[in-house]
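Purpose: get a first structural picture of the assembly so the mutagenesis plan has something to point at.
Setup: two entries, given in the order below. No constraints added.
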Amino acid sequence: MRIVRGLIVLAGLIALWQAIVWITAAEPWMLPGPTDVALAWAAHYQSILSHAALTAAEIVLGLLSGTVLGCSSALIMAYFRPARRWLLPVLVVSQAIPVFALAPILVLWLGYGIVSKVAMATLIIYFPVTAAFHDGLRRTEPGWLDLARTMNAGRWSILWHVRIPAALPALASGLRVATAVAPIGAIVGEWVGSSAGLGYLMLHANARMQVDVMFAALVTLAALAVTLFFIMDTGLRKALPWQPDSAPDND
Amino acid sequence: MPSTETTSAISVNVHSGAVEFDGAVLFEELDVTLPQGRITCLLGTSGVGKSTLLRLISGLETGPSNGGVVLCSDGKPLSGRVALMAQRAFLLPWLNVVDNVLLGSRLRGERQSRDRAKEILADVGLADWANASPDTLSGGMRQRAALARTLMEDRPVVLMDEPFSGLDAITKVRLQNLAARMLKGRTVLLVTHDPLEALRLGDRIHVMAGRPARLDENPLEPEGAAPRDVDDPTVLEAQGVLLRRLAEAAR
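Result (structure tokens, whole complex):
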């Protein structure tokens, strides 16, 4: 049902796109129609897919390292009071400075290759992951903690058996946000300096007025992002079956 | 019920118990004795400090302005020898029922005796639910599981904070019978606001009132062994006495 609904939404969006093209009578070099883009995709699919594979690798690696970094920061902040005071400003700064502003510096330092893009994606998801997990770790049900203390559980045992599992639903929310924003980091990194990836392909096509190829790359990026989100969301649901799932529209 | 008999029953004395919240004295110079192997009930209006006294005994109330001496009849500290049962079951939703019963040994990193846990689950009538997830249980079943977890800890002192107050009348009576049977031989403090419950289960019934809160001088000591019948004339008569005391205390 979820897939069918997704397909219907997709068909609706394509129809809307086509309708706009007809109504505005836009020139193909301003807004190519779905069929033009489909043809461009078919003509360049090999190159588009190889660029997409690189962008996907950047996003996934960024997600992995951002998650590891974010979870470690959250754990350290939750368990060492001085670390909380020192890490919190870092966290805020990491979010306050726009990644767009940092992109040129990262490319300068880390080069034109994949590393600077992974760093960008890591940076952009670091805040949502850390904030969500840290919040989850601090909001453990007090009744569970009382129970664990009367059972003579040690600090680390409480962390491992109670606080971390209890914080997983919050971490899952952070990971969903992270999956949605991670592509931004990768693409911005590619725009600023790269020789491959969907972002590079879009700039390259733009410079040559291959607007249909640009759109084909954009559509591929959208499909990639949605697929990643779908995989993450499904995986998290499966991994946390105890998480209460109630929609407010039933209230 | 030889399987739940405790060998080392102890009595507990609290001397000069004191708790302050933001400068407001909840109680001070409060003395209470929990006789060995008996159920002591604590009745009183909401907010009088019953639960706080229970938490003070359990070692969970550890603010700088809290004080008092908790002495055990065998001279050893009480810490590590209490089991806690609260108004809510506080089952961990990511563990199944039997793993929740085994929570104490899991937290302490001890060997887990699954057979013993299953025996206790059978005693409380949850034999078929050992592998169920807590969120599939009814309120009464959840409290049964919490009781099983309490018994699994096999502690000489059991502190219960309104453990049956969220249940319907029939379930409540059944669980009171079960608890009276299973807790025989242990030193129990039962905090409740239900006079009938206190009279069914309590060997000694204190009314706590005032601010700073005090315990009544001459606690009720109903005759006969718990659980006493709901329609026992002496229970009904004592209920009248107890209600009058509560009403006076509330003035």
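Chain A has one domain: 42-240.
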